[in-house]
Amino acid sequence: MKAKDNVKNIEKFKGKMPLSELADLAKSNLKDKQTQSDLIQATKRGFFSKTYMTLTWPIRKLFGGKPNPATEALELVPKPLKRITFMNKELIKEKEMNNIMREIEQYNIFYPKMIQSMPSNISSMINIVGDGKNPLEELIQKTSKESKMGGFWKKRSAYIAEKGINTVNDFLNKYKSSCPPSRTVKEAQKYVSETYGKRFTLKGDKPLGVGTIAETFLAKDNETGNDVVIKMVKKWVSLDKLKKDKENMLKSLERVKDKIKPDEYDYQRKLVDELYSAWSKEVDLKLEAEAAKTLGKYAVNYNTVSPVAVKNNIFVMEKANGVQFDKLEEYLKKNKINLTEQEAEDIYINYMKVFFEQLLSVPKKGQKVMHADPHAGNIFVDLKNKSKPFTFIDTGNVMRYTPEGAIQNVTSHIDYLIGNSKAISKRLLKDAVLPEGMSQKQAEEMLTKHLDETFFSGKNRICGDPFSTINNACSEFMSKNKVIINSSNTNLLKAELTYFVNMTTIGDVLEKIDKEKLADNKQMKLLGKQIQESVLNGMMNNKKCTWNEVYSRYKYINDNPEQFFTTLYSFIPPN
């Protein structure tokens, strides 16, 4: 396509250009001066999708006012929220952000979650790289410096000139982390007392944590003298509200169905369904208490917080020992704790064990429960507990497996170790939403070829955790080809990646350990031990299912020895 045709396309969109198309134009025509000018103007006007502009129409009407040109640069964020002024993190006050998010949550709880689901680095989506710099960002900065606008806009241009397009990221990160509480400590105390009388006394001047659905408070159990954590659903959240908000979101989507691409419509509808499915379970805190019991019942290498009481949807649990994992580094520095090399190594290895147990364990009987939201704030580290230093909290989002499902989960992970690319592709693409014109067979063949060329050819070494490494690459490849993964796989892949990121972060915090050495010498041994133990438990739980799953992998190795050995070669550490 010629540059002038691209310029016409930009004019045609008038500020409604999707990021992907903007990136394509920039990559192919960045040297063309007219295209440069139009790209800058498109950026100033803001590039946003029709879908989100339609979905957020009620919010824009609620807040009133004319669209804010600077806010439009956030592709998916409601335009006229004037109090989120101009993406400038210095102007975004915590109290004001909480007020905004509170009003949006009460209006429709799905809106903030969609905003929070946006990529955390929009500038990387534009993906224009030249000599390590972003030419589009340089153009924006240059134009901002030369701007002749006066007053506030002059200051805003100066800020953009200094910070570039990353101001968008500053704003988005603030927006994503701002879940507002629905109660003050005083209000929460009154609510708890109505159910439990004088048994619990809340402590502190703010909640311990706040999520989309619920909030937690630190308290003292006056019967035992122990500290506990009390979790309650936000006062404006209920199952009826979730149902109503879901219906309104789906109606909004239906109104724009003929104006957007089918795969985009399917994706948005699927996202709403997934959020509702997860949230409808989180509203019932009895389920979370039961999940905590089940998660801890067969735990070998970790602890879970034990429920103290559940009544009228107020969940009281033990306070976890130690410090939250995301505050470990700060804790070590503040208390001037210098871990020995052996102590640091023991913590790292213990987390490896937790990771593999959560991912691959099979109980000897009953269902398997896996914590599906293992972010650093949901894991506590107790340095005094040498054998099991890690404790899980917040079991509202868990994955439950039948005995057969747990066995199949283990054996499907064996496919990554033996190079069974067809089985991996079939699993990841099960119930996926495919783009128009692509059959299931074509999708599986496409992903299988990608896996063989990228990982199982023996040309490249697979470093670190093979599951997250391969899954992450597959997710990116499928996204690039407009394939939408089913909700179960999405949840599993997200959890696996989070567990792996935690392991990497622990290695960064515990600077004294040799991560590569431990990964090479310990990781594969621990992995093999966990798989062996899970297969043995599977034979006790369901012998027939386990035998069939194991035999199919044996048959694959026997029929594909070359693929098997080249895959093994990719795991061998360099000399």
What's the number of domains?
4
Mean of residue pLDDT values: 75
Sheet with the most strands?
A: 6 strands, antiparallel
Q: What share of the residues does DSSP label as strand, in percent?
A: 5-15%
Amount of helix: 55-70%
Task: Give the termini distance in whole angstroms.
Answer: 49 Å
Label the overall shape: globular
| Low-confidence runs of at least 5 consecutive residues | 1-20, 38-92, 118-137, 146-153, 159-169
Count of alpha/pi helices:
25
In terms of quaternary structure, the protein is single chain
Commentary on this structure:
Strand 3 and strand 4 form a beta hairpin. With 575 residues, the protein is of the alpha+beta class. Helix 18 packs parallel to helix 24 (543-559). It folds into 4 domains: 3-176, no CATH class; 185-237 and 283-311, 2-Layer Sandwich (Phosphorylase Kinase, domain 1); 239-281; 321-575, no CATH class. Mean pLDDT is 75; it is low at 1-20, 38-92, 118-137, 146-153 and 159-169. The chain is built from 25 helices and 12 strands.
